[in-house]
Design brief:
Radius of gyration: 60 Å
Distance between the termini: 8 Å
Largest sheet: 8 strands, mixed
Number of helices: 20
CATH architecture of one domain: 3-Layer(aba) Sandwich
Helix content: 40-55%
Oligomer: single chain
CATH class of one domain: Alpha Beta
Length: 741
């Protein structure tokens, strides 16, 4: 049998190089009453390096065009731009404060906040007042072409605005240096204005410092006169009141800080009160010692007395001797009686000594009480005098505090006034010119190379952004990554797109062609789609017409037949049969559905060894009704028993009920998707098949263009699959595959 006799629809095929076969798993779950499906094990998300390169290569001409256009715009803008010259002055700004009244007032910011001070100076450099000063000093308002206006004042304001617009103040980080740059079409004027801005800033800074110092001196002089008068009056009132009340201060009024509490009476009262406290403490101590002696018969003084200690030592020795002899002699012996007599004599001596000490304690207590009573009387006498003095000293303290406050304020203001008087005429500036501006020799803008580089980068960025934006909004299935990422289904293989003059039959007949190799890979992938190996009953369908399902059915059948297995190819597309057969003999699927004949009665041979064909037969008026009778299930079972493998070429899924019905009866379903078609119809087709409980083995991506993908934007979502479409109303005029031997 000759493969060259297999003629295929011109629009039905032409695909890309077979790439790597990928396996996946399909899971059918029920969630919220709706069947959901999952995609392959290796699911891709986002862009990877190969995807980036693919997008760039695909849209290379658009990216190149936008880049060239951007560079051209940059060149035109550069040529149309007026050359500008920039002159710069480098200045040093040192924060040197001029503090007039310390914490009370400040003329300039202190050195504690250098950043704030420098930011203030930068703001002054950008101020309109300085710009107007420069415009007046250089008479820029009257220079032709610099600024316009109806009157001198308006021209001066316009000149100041132009200066501010072309002025740059660039601080140098980590230092007190600042660069003042000015840009102008005239190089000489650029240097002149830059130097004028620096000099004007220094002059205005000196004027502000001088004006601030002069104001401070006038203010301090006025305040000194007022404070001095108040101080003199306060001191006179203090002296008059002290004389009238008889208040004598030990420190004197001029010492400052004295009060009526420092008077003689107060000091005497303080001393007597301290003596009274000591006398009271002595009396309490003497009373405690006396009470202890009266209560216990002995005291610490008695115990510490040398006489008592000697007597007690003798008493202890006699007692020890008595106790020793008592063990040998009787108590009535004269020697024992003598010892007892001596111990009693010592006891009386100890008692007499204790009474003597107690008497001395009583005398000490009486003496302490007398001294305490005497001091209490003297303290009571002085207390009244001091209290009266304190009542009279309230007003004295008020007057003295007023005098002290005025004296302190007067001394501080006088010191500040002297300091300003010494430093006020120095006139040292906080700013100095380090490098004056020189006339620039070349324009600072435009910069051709930089503009071209910016245009080049901008064009590349714009081109890449446009390319990836198009890819992002593109909802078509055109790459293996789209099958896994957008359809969530495993990829069985890729079929390359043929050249315009190539024949699918010729390519399929050549064992070394790309088409043949791709279908070998697809057949191999089908062997791993189930644990049992190659499925015996395979249905091939697509979402719409002309995606390559018939060619895929034929190629799979031929591949299976080459393995020495008996294969039956069923043309189940009763609306548009793809395989030629002699309809006059009454054989075909249509006749088999309407009769109880055996499948083998309607099978015809082909030019391919081990491959048989069950043609569609006569086109019926109601294909869907014929397939829904249940006869098709019996036909498929019988075909399964008679042949090793059965390949069913089903009609497209969308718009028809044939494919889902047939898919539910087959072992697996192979979904053919043309590269470049929108994702939505494919998803709808997959959803319909899964709702029919079809076992989808995976996706075959046909018409894949390795060099350039992304075709198919002109395909719509509708399914325009009807009788005689594209080839006329007569179904017989449609080209068919002639496989009958």
């Amino acid at each position: 049998m000759n493969n060259e006799n297999n003629a295929l629809l011109p629009s039905d095929h032409g695909q890309g190089r077979a790439l790597e076969t990928q396996r996946g798993a399909i899971a059918l779950n029920t969630l919220s009453g709706e069947r959901m499906y999952q995609g392959a094990e290796n699911e891709t998300g986002g862009f990877n390096a190969s995807e980036l390169l693919r997008v760039v290569f695909k849209w290379k001409w658009m990216i190149l065009g936008l880049t060239l256009a951007s560079v051209l715009v940059a060149v035109l803008v550069t040529l149309a731009t007026t050359p500008l010259y920039r002159a710069s002055v480098t200045m040093e700004i040192s924060p040197s404060p001029s503090d007039v009244t310390g914490k009370q007032a400040e003329v300039q910011p202190g050195q504690g906040d250098n950043d704030q001070f420098l930011r203030t100076q930068y703001g002054l450099l950008r101020s309109r007042a300085l710009a107007e000063r420069v415009a007046r000093s250089l008479n820029l308002g009257n220079q032709s072409g610099f600024a316009g206006g109806s009157n001198p004042a308006a021209r001066e304001r316009a000149a100041a605005s132009k200066i501010l617009g072309n002025l740059e103040v660039v601080p140098q980080p980590g230092s007190s240096l600042v660069e003042i740059g000015y840009t102008d079409p005239n190089p000489a004027r650029a240097a002149e204005v830059a130097n004028a801005i620096a000099n004007g800033f220094i002059t205005s800074n000196l004027e502000r410092r001088y004006n601030a110092t002069a104001y401070a001196r006038r203010f301090l002089q006025t305040r000194l006169q007022a404070i001095r008068a108040r101080l003199e009056e306060a001191e006179r009132q203090l002296v008059r009141y002290a004389q009238s009340q008889g208040i004598v201060e030990l420190g004197g009024a001029s010492a400052g800080g004295s009060s009526p509490g420092d008077s003689l009476s107060a000091q005497s009262l303080t001393a007597l009160n301290a003596a009274l406290s000591q006398a009271t403490a002595d009396r309490i101590s003497a009373e405690q010692r006396y009470r202890e002696a009266a209560t216990n018969g002995t005291t610490t003084q008695v115990l510490n007395s040398p006489t008592v200690q000697g007597l007690r030592s003798q008493r202890a020795q006699l007692q020890a001797e008595y106790d020793q002899k008592l063990a040998t002699f009787k108590p009535g012996l004269p020697e024992m009686i003598a010892l007892r007599t001596r111990m009693e004599s010592i006891d009386r001596a100890i008692a007499a000594e204790s009474r003597s000490v107690t008497g001395s304690l009583r005398s000490a207590l009486d003496e302490a009480r007398g001294r305490e009573a005497q001091l209490q009387g003297r303290v009571a006498a002085l207390r009244g005098t001091v209290l009266d003095l304190r009542n009279r000293g309230i007003q004295y303290n008020i007057l003295q505090r007023e005098a002290d406050t005025n004296r302190t304020l007067y001394d501080a203001l006088l010191q500040r006034y002297k300091e300003i008087g010494v430093a006020g005429g120095v006139g040292e500036s906080q700013a100095a010119v380090v490098d004056p501006a020189q006339r620039p020799g070349s324009p600072s803008s435009p910069m051709p190379l930089l503009n071209v580089a910016i245009g080049l980068v901008a064009g590349l960025v714009l081109g890449l952004a446009a390319a990836f934006a198009i890819e992002f909004i593109d909802d078509t299935v055109k790459t293996p990554e789209d099958v896994l990422g957008k359809l969530k289904m495993p990829l069985l293989g890729l079929v390359p797109k043929l050249d315009k003059n190539a024949s699918f039959a010729d390519e399929l007949g050549d064992p070394r062609s790309e088409v043949t190799e791709s279908y070998h890979s697809i057949a191999t992938a089908l062997q791993f789609s189930s644990p049992a190996g190659m499925p015996r009953l395979i249905l091939v369908s697509s979402s719409r017409a002309a995606e390559g399902k018939t060619s895929t059915s034929l190629a799979l059948a031929q591949n299976l037949a080459r393995t020495a297995s008996s294969v039956l190819l069923i043309d189940a597309d009763l609306r548009k049969p793809s395989f030629k057969a002699d309809a006059s003999d009454g054989r075909g699927l249509t006749a088999l559905l309407t009769s109880a004949d055996s499948v083998m009665d309607h099978v015809v041979g082909t030019y391919v060894d081990n491959l048989s064909l069950l043609p569609g037969g006569v086109i019926p008026p109601n294909p869907a009704e014929l397939l829904s009778t249940g006869r098709i299930a019996a036909i498929l079972r019988e075909a399964r028993e008679c042949f090793d493998f059965v390949v069913v070429d089903a009609p497209p899924v969308l718009g028809l009920a044939d494919a889902p019905m047939l898919a539910s009866m087959c072992d697996v379903t192979v979904m053919v998707v043309q590269a470049g078609i929108p994702r939505r119809p494919v998803l709808n087709s997959l959803r319909r098949l899964l709702e029919a409980r079809a076992n989808i083995a995976g996706i075959v991506l046909t018409k894949f263009n390795v060099k350039h993908t992304g075709y198919g934007y002109g395909y719509g979502y509708g399914y325009g699959y009807g009788y005689g479409e594209r080839y006329g109303s007569d179904a017989s005029s449609r080209p068919q595959i002639d496989m009958v031997a």
